[in-house]
């Protein structure tokens, strides 16, 4: 097989655009790159500036370049008898066909393969398929990204890497892949057929199968979880029997010094070790604020492991984001395994939907139950290879893009469709493995979401625990509201309906119908008539739900300050006292859904129990369990929708959200408790021996009162069962951060800036960006304002080679934008809400942070409104009790983006003069960890910035 790897640079992505450079790399049958062809092309039209910015190819470069016809005369002979390959090949192939046609050649009719498909299948856990990133991850030299010859060569090396990977896959995996593509009329089918034939004719190489377990025609990376043994032998006694916490920590510190060359003990971290241990020891709760650089993960992990092993009592650790959960597993626990002087076990346990159900997956690919075949076949191929690598079966390891999330939803584990010990896969099951590990572990790392799911399931999901550490605790109240309340999405109902019955060929009901038709069972015709009776009812529910969603969406006004496509761009609060005029008519549609779903659930339950009892068909067992789960889902959706539409709980706030891109299909219904403090108190602070809450932002103006009130810790504080600690910052903020307020800056009301405000802001940001050579992040509170600033700022900075990146401006995800910002030093990143926290850009990539407005939440958000009303009823001032503390915590999160390490140095500009003019401004400034603060006229700012950055 001879490959020709093609890449074009063009003036744009439309078929009417022109080629400005061509690159081709030829891979011979012995897998050597024998030739690289590269040529600039004169497009006959000006090259757009952004293309020059991307490729480095200017109008001057192509002025004397060959025409398209001249370049094609050299390129066409190289395409003889080759398999054409490209990275996202459709793009290059379309330009090639167009060029062949224009220059009078016959169209290319050979085989075409895409390296993106190969990367997905061969490296299912790569976090990106972007060529530059893949090349650097594989250690390939790719010295001129976005230049055609360099891209073609890099793509050729990526292809060779994939072919090498395919060579080492177990034969059974290759056979599975080939079977998977059998029905596809595609070049991938041709490729995998050839690979299979070649591998089946090759002598068996035992090394390919080393470490693999073969079961039901799959290669797996793990054996039965029932064979797992605890890390410590009970007969050896307790390794901490006569060891004090001080002795244990001394040993750990010595080992840390030996393991980490630059390890030095930090005052804040040492204090944290002690405070966490005291709280665990004395059965107290603890609020502990630990800023960036404290090393708070180790700060609570080391005492937790000591307590757990010494007392033989599990400690539960909960994080807000899966990211932090992964970081603890991949970075902190492996380090601790090296430095703790005895074996211990830390297990990560996520929500059940994160684990693959092997039974459902096997069933899906054996039946080829694909809703969008082309994409689903590649996703299935990706997962077949992943099964030979994964030890956890956790979806976070997989790079699932596009519609793959729907695929995952149909094969992920869930309690209602689990057949437990009756499942042939039970001993290999990833969810039961994680659960078993958690049961044996000393510390279990979970997330806030799972914590509340466990509470709602009467503590059936997590192992029993008495001590709990909550990291990222400033998020606890919001997560509690979402989980203790209700959030029903348009697609929650639609997916359940579709999985039951999509059309006569796909869905669980048609699948069971097929089995019943061939079963010859005496009750088969009776059961078939029940199934047939259900199908029109399911369609009728779908029609009614579509109608109801459409009409509910029609009630919601657009919110002015949200991203297009962002949840909450359209928001409407509802209450029993202020029902919309059409509510009675809408309730009638809901009543119809309620009745029909009630009938369906009853018929479904009866059918499932009869099939379980009487149908003795092994192949139907899993299907019947899945059906049972889906009917249970329908019953719970029915109750949730009914609860929402009744609007009758006084202590609950009801609202709807949607966005303009997907309209009624993006509809979300919320019913959330206004105040969760009493529930948190009852569920955690009254029940658990010790709850430790930590975050970089828990205090407001050095006081924890806001958190104590909102999280239900008042009684614990009064009974002296709560300790609060503000750790000193490990950084020298006075030398590392300068905060500037331009005191004569125009003020602005609302979410839109007037011309004076926008022009002054753009000019000031452009001047500051020149002084800091980009490396600047600008945080907005309103998307409208970001949009007002984006284009004019881009124009101002264009001539200085400083790129402006804007959230929501070119469809790039948050992760992509942050990566681009880090990779191109001369850039300015504009972001709204999701950029205020969780963005970690250490070093020089970020030297200046601009905060445009103080981050007050929109007062008209339904939850904020309802909380304010409650405070008013209690004769409290909602602004000082709610709005200011919330904004201060957010402000501290934003400020925390700047200094991430002891050597970072930079500037924060706060353009909102309320911070120095208003009576509440001091709460914002006093809450910061001590940066140098100055205010000055706008035109004095740039000289001061330059002076500060140049100071030694």
From TrEMBL:
<dbReference type="InterPro" id="IPR014001">
    <property type="entry name" value="Helicase_ATP-bd"/>
</dbReference>
<dbReference type="Pfam" id="PF13307">
    <property type="entry name" value="Helicase_C_2"/>
</dbReference>
<feature type="domain" description="Helicase ATP-binding">
    <location>
        <begin position="255"/>
        <end position="532"/>
    </location>
</feature>
<comment type="similarity">
    <text>Belongs to the helicase family. DinG subfamily. Type 2 sub-subfamily.</text>
</comment>
<feature type="domain" description="Helicase C-terminal">
    <location>
        <begin position="764"/>
        <end position="939"/>
    </location>
</feature>
<dbReference type="InterPro" id="IPR011545">
    <property type="entry name" value="DEAD/DEAH_box_helicase_dom"/>
</dbReference>
<dbReference type="GO" id="GO:0043139">
    <property type="term" value="F:5'-3' DNA helicase activity"/>
</dbReference>
<keyword id="KW-0540">Nuclease</keyword>
<keyword id="KW-0067">ATP-binding</keyword>
<keyword id="KW-0347">Helicase</keyword>
<dbReference type="InterPro" id="IPR013520">
    <property type="entry name" value="Ribonucl_H"/>
</dbReference>
<dbReference type="InterPro" id="IPR036397">
    <property type="entry name" value="RNaseH_sf"/>
</dbReference>
<dbReference type="InterPro" id="IPR006555">
    <property type="entry name" value="ATP-dep_Helicase_C"/>
</dbReference>
<feature type="short sequence motif" description="DEAH box">
    <location>
        <begin position="471"/>
        <end position="474"/>
    </location>
</feature>
<keyword id="KW-0269">Exonuclease</keyword>
<protein>
    <recommendedName>
        <fullName>3'-5' exonuclease DinG</fullName>
        <ecNumber>3.1.-.-</ecNumber>
    </recommendedName>
</protein>
<dbReference type="InterPro" id="IPR045028">
    <property type="entry name" value="DinG/Rad3-like"/>
</dbReference>
<comment type="function">
    <text>3'-5' exonuclease.</text>
</comment>
<dbReference type="GO" id="GO:0006139">
    <property type="term" value="P:nucleobase-containing compound metabolic process"/>
</dbReference>
<feature type="binding site">
    <location>
        <begin position="290"/>
        <end position="297"/>
    </location>
    <ligand>
        <name>ATP</name>
    </ligand>
</feature>
<dbReference type="InterPro" id="IPR006310">
    <property type="entry name" value="DinG"/>
</dbReference>
<dbReference type="Pfam" id="PF00270">
    <property type="entry name" value="DEAD"/>
</dbReference>
<dbReference type="GO" id="GO:0016818">
    <property type="term" value="F:hydrolase activity, acting on acid anhydrides, in phosphorus-containing anhydrides"/>
</dbReference>
<dbReference type="GO" id="GO:0003676">
    <property type="term" value="F:nucleic acid binding"/>
</dbReference>
<dbReference type="GO" id="GO:0008408">
    <property type="term" value="F:3'-5' exonuclease activity"/>
</dbReference>
<keyword id="KW-0378">Hydrolase</keyword>
<dbReference type="InterPro" id="IPR012337">
    <property type="entry name" value="RNaseH-like_sf"/>
</dbReference>
<dbReference type="Pfam" id="PF00929">
    <property type="entry name" value="RNase_T"/>
</dbReference>
<dbReference type="GO" id="GO:0005524">
    <property type="term" value="F:ATP binding"/>
</dbReference>
<dbReference type="InterPro" id="IPR014013">
    <property type="entry name" value="Helic_SF1/SF2_ATP-bd_DinG/Rad3"/>
</dbReference>
<dbReference type="InterPro" id="IPR027417">
    <property type="entry name" value="P-loop_NTPase"/>
</dbReference>
<keyword id="KW-0547">Nucleotide-binding</keyword>
<dbReference type="InterPro" id="IPR001650">
    <property type="entry name" value="Helicase_C-like"/>
</dbReference>
